[in-house]
Structures are given as structure tokens and as C-alpha cells.
Amino acid sequence: MEENLQAFKGKQDTIHSSIKQAIEKSIDVLPGGDKTIYVVPSSPEFKSNANLMNGVYGVVYGEHAILILIDPAFNVENLEYTIAHEYHHTVNFETRKSEQNSNLDGVVVEGKADAFAKQIYPDVENPWVDTLHPNKEKMVWDMISDNPDTYNQDLYDETFFGSRQKKIPMWSNYRVGLQIMDAFLQKNPDVSIPEWTSMTTDEILEKGKYAEKFE
Fold first, then answer.
1. How far from chain centre, in Å, is Cα 202?
2. Partners of 41 in the beta sheet?
3. Contact (Cβ atoms closer than 8 angstroms) between residue 80 and residue 72
4. Which pLDDT score, from 0 to 100, does residue 10 have?
5. Terminus-to-terminus CA distance in the chain, angstroms?
6. What is the rounded CA–CA span in Å between residue 115 and residue 129?
7. Cα Dmax for the chain
8. What are the residue ranges spanned by the domains of the chain?
9. Predicted local distance difference test score (pLDDT) of residue 178
10. Which positions ≥6 away from 155 have C-beta within 8 Å?
């Protein structure tokens, strides 16, 4: 931890200004309540996640708190994208406090957050939202949609961390989530960000007709 703290010397202003800019841009298009953002050096248990995610790893705690774990080699653009992504989660909690009861809910919640962040930062590229091969996409969709009303931790782990045994790519849940939202936005371009943020999983799937591509 002490080594990480030393590595951050001289970077505080960059971190602060990047977060401030990302929050201001996010609030402009999706107003929300008060938020507290905690920024800490990535600890050993999160360091691998932070490194894989371009030096930044975010977690939200309800509608008010965002925790950003950051590596000294962080990417500024990715920090701003992550702030926007996590900010959307907090506003989603404001509007849909009871959602994310199932794996499918969680996939759509992540898809919403990435769709939001990509509208603000369309040129930022992140590996966890790379498009899946159609065969992989269908396989993951079948796994997630098979039990749409339940949550299974093993299924989450397989679709987030990936599974060599089942040949599931890493971050498949995020990737499918964004593809669900892409389908929704293509068919519903006039629905505003606040409107689709407050929509349920069933509404997003019904209006986006995502599942029809596999019929």
C-alpha cells in the first residue's frame, strides 16, 4: 500500500479533475442525488481486476457511494468512463431499488451502465464490452435467460470471470448486457436516458426485441 501511495504523488490533481469532469458530464444528461466518491489505491485482492480494466475498478454501495480502486498506471480516459458507468449504477438504484434480483437483471443493469458511459465517452474502448462472436453470444444468452427470475452465484462467476471448461469468454455478462441495450437503443432512439434508466428488465427486453435474433 505504501508503495502505491508513493506512486500516486503528483497524480492527485489529474485524478480529481478527471473525476470532476466525468461527474459533471454524467449529471448533465442524467441528474441524480448526492454522491460520495472514495478513491483508494488498488489493494492486492483487487489489483488484478484493476489491471485488467486499464488500471481502474469501480464498485457502488447503494445510491450514494462509489468506490474507485485505482492503479498508479491508470488510464485517464478509462477513469472517466468508469466514473460515468458507476454513477449510472447509483442513479439506477435511486429509480429501481428492488431490481437486480436475478442474473438477467444484473446483466441488463451492467448493459445500461455501459450504454450510458459510451454515450458520454463514445471513443473510449474497453475490453469488457467487446462484441461476442454470435455463437458465444447465443450460448451465454441461453445460460442467462434459462432462469430469468433467479440468481446463481456460480453462473455469475462463469460469465464474469469466464470458464475455460465451458469456453465462456471473460466478461460475457457485460458484453451481452451492452448488446441487449444496443438492440433496445436501435429500436427506441427517442427514449431518453432517464426513461430507459428507470425501465425494468422485462421492458428493455420487450421493447428491444433482443431475444428475437436467436429465433
1. 19
2. 70
3. no
4. 73
5. 51
6. 10
7. 55
8. 1-95, 99-215
9. 96
10. 103, 143, 144
**Helices assigned H by DSSP within the chain:** 2-7, 12-29, 44-52, 76-95, 103-120, 134-145, 153-161, 172-187, 193-197, 201-208
CA–CA–CA angle 181, 19, 186 (5° rounding): 15
Amino acid letter, residue 86: E
pLDDT at 51: 53
Using the structure block, give the residue that is written with the C-alpha cell 460475457: 172
Mean pLDDT for back-to-back runs of 10 residues, the chain (215 residues) = 64 91 97 93 59 77 91 88 96 74 93 97 87 92 92 93 91 95 97 95 96 89
Chain centroid to Cα 145, Å, comes to 19
206, 180 Cβ separation under 8 angstroms: no
> What pLDDT was estimated at residue 68?
92
Q: Rounded to whole angstroms, how far apart are CA atoms 81 and 75?
A: 10
Sheet strands side by side (includes 36-41)? 36-41, 65-70, 56-61
Cell 436475478 sits on residue:
102
Which residue, among 172, 45, 177, 165, has the nearest Cα to 110 in the 3D structure? 177
What's the grid cell of residue 206? 420487450
| Cell output for 40 | 483508494
